[in-house]
Amino acid sequence: MKAIRRFTVRPVLPDTLRPLADLARNLRWSWHEPTRALFESLATSGPGAPPGTDPVRILGSLEAPRLAALAADQDFLARLRAAAEDLDAYLHAPRWYQEQSGDLPAAVAYFSPEFGVAAALPQYSGGLGILAGDHLKAASDLGVPLIGVGLLYRHGYFRQSLGRDGWQQEQYPVLDPGELPVTLLREPDGTPARVTLALPGGRSLHAHLWTAQVGRVPLLMLDSDVEENAPGERGVTDRLYGGGSEHRLLQEMLLGIGGVRAVRTYTRLTGHPVPEVFHTNEGHAGFLGLERIRELQGDGLDFDSALETVRAGTVFTTHTPVPAGIDRFDRALVARHLGEDGALPGVDTGRVLALGDELPLGGEPGVFNMAAMGLRLAQRANGVSTLHGAVSRAMFAGLWPGFDADEVPITSITNGVHAPTWVAPEVGPLGPDASDRELWDLRRTLRERLVADVRDRLRASWRQRGAAAAELGWTDSVLDPDVLTIGFARRVPSYKRLTLMLRDKDRLRSLLLHPERPVQLVVAGKAHPADDGGKRLVQELVRFADDPRVRHRIVFLPDYGMEMARGLYPGCDVWLNNPLRPLEACGTSGMKAALNGCLNLSVLDGWWDEWFEPDFGWAIPTADGAAAADEERRDDLEAAALYELIERRVAPRFYDRGPDGVPSGWTAMVRRTLADLGPKVLADRMVREYVERLYAPAASARRALTPGRARELAAWKARVREAWPKVAVEHVEVGDGLADDVADAELGATPVVRVRVALGTLAPDDVEVQAVTGRVDADDTLTSPRTVTLKPAGGPDLEGRLPYAGTLELDRTGSFGCTVRVLPTHPLLAHPTELGLATLPEETTGAGAGVLLR
């Protein structure tokens, strides 16, 4: 018989054990080793025991006699008091944020479609979610008053297993919130707090609000599985990234629009400071800006003034380097769900659709682009590595016409990872003065632990595939704790090239089975359930790993997740990453490995392009030119480079042992990785940068926009846009004081630039006139340009043109060029390119436009 209802029965804790409930409900235990150890000491074993360290489930499994014994155990009670006091101090003592000077935001709301905080709260699919989880944890450690906002998926992301033939299979276990470290948010009368979105046809989408406490940071998760909803609406938060287009649209409406309403409800009920800054982590949450426009219109602002107010306090982070990674919806579908009969009555649907217009990006007229909307609704935007910032500026340059990609106002803050979550406990205490022997012994210990874990997981996987216990004796000799171990684990989209290592199977076998310098590989990864191409890659890898000739040297572990990763990163000697450059926005798995003394072997992409040094690992060469355009040849060349690196450089260094059996060259690289690379890849560094470079300026900009100033700014922008077609640069002279124009000049010369500009109905205070100089290439394109602001140099001439002048400093030799442009300017603009308006001379080359230095 099957149960028709499911519910959770919680134990009644004796008074002396009550702090256990507080410790279990705060996810700080997931990165605080003493608290983890406390709960691990309570865990039972045997059939039905909760897997891993999940304090909520551990407490739920304790029987009354065990609880009574613990309540009388003075040693345990002393450990419990110490853990509770430590948590209390962590939650309430001033931290980095409270010690900063200046006007920092009272609170920041951080929206993301997924959060990877702990394996016990499976609400993530890959790097975006893990990054979001690490962002919350680092914010908590630093005392940043963040509120996380996401969805509570009742099936989470899928669990992965393998069929007998190696084909990926998916299962979606039901998650009971009563068994998760979450608490239902309630109104003062005890009823569940909820938010409601109106849907077309008189329908409604209701959601309850669950709170997960991530240290000091609350994470609000909206749950549509409530009885008041019709079946279709009840399933909106069923699966992460599941369903068709309308289902995804409803998820993103609930996350963005419902998320803002959830934040308002939470701050009303708890007294938490109201957020001054809203951070949109990828375009999925972009609708939050529209809800805030609706709120401000209710307070009396018009759409344009509300838009300026929202933009001032919004940060948008893009994580995708390719247009295919952006959510796009049919415009008619969006209009139907957000119009007068939908979730945003009173908000002009035409204006909303214009925010998602992708035509400037070379897109389609009938499509609503979530990233385009996210960028238009945010005054500050960033990519997640230096290279990704450059890629993003080029990809979205169409939204700022008239400017070179380098000037597009998208900066970059390179991702980081939360060290307490990902560093093995033994690595943390290791200081910079550790000897080679200590480093090498630690690496061996971690590798041995990984080997044991891999064997257990491999046996479990084969049993799922139908193998009998009698067939699995060979798994006892899988991997060797003394063999060079390379790890590769991530999602399996095609650009990450899971199977590049299989390009030449004979060459790979020779590496795995080398008589003196063998290599072993541990591989894991999930393909999206709808991606049959990704599943075929998994199957190809699994079939190779099933070969009895090499299965003791290469394994594929299904169901890659946080719990597996915590052992995988420390246990590997080398972390492999071979994406198609530049399609890896950041790639944080190699950061987690580095924090454990694992060396990186990677294509120069994402963060590795930024921080690679030969002391930290190896760079896999990438094909360029014609070879890069031919996919087959490109992969052949890059796979060959990978094999060559492993065979000629990586393996020899690992096996080059001194008389004491220690490879001093290898341990030197481990030491440099820990000491020099480790501090760069920390999430603490990342969150500090967000606070200083984005959150604080956004809060200041938002405070500056009183309703009156917002109306003034919106009116100014409208006036400038209307008048801009009449703005023109009509005359340019570059002289050296002796002649009106110069064809060449000496190094150190200071020629004067004189221009006349027509401003139409605009005033001089509305614009900035600039001379732009730099080296020029064969096409007269300026490279590494510099700007010089030109000053008014008199009254208008008979035709109403205004003179401007300024002096250039010619401090570089070689081919040199100069042009002039006019930009709109206003004290409340965050960036001079913000309006996407620029006027240049009709001819930017020719007499007077360039100067040649010798």
From TrEMBL:
Its EC number is 2.4.1.1. Residues 13-121 form the DUF3417 domain. Keywords: Allosteric enzyme, Carbohydrate metabolism, Glycosyltransferase, Pyridoxal phosphate, Transferase. The modification N6-(pyridoxal phosphate)lysine is found at K592. It comes from the Bacteria. InterPro entries: Agluc_phsphrylas (IPR011834), Glyco_trans_35 (IPR000811), Glycogen/Maltodextrin_Phosph (IPR052182), Glycogen_phosphorylase_DUF3417 (IPR024517), Pyridoxal_P_attach_site (IPR035090). It catalyses: [(1->4)-alpha-D-glucosyl](n) + phosphate = [(1->4)-alpha-D-glucosyl](n-1) + alpha-D-glucose 1-phosphate. The keyword Transferase applies. Signal peptide: none annotated. Phosphorylase is an important allosteric enzyme in carbohydrate metabolism. Enzymes from different sources differ in their regulatory mechanisms and in their natural substrates. However, all known phosphorylases share catalytic and structural properties. Belongs to the glycogen phosphorylase family. This is glycogen phosphorylase. It comes from Streptomyces cinereoruber.
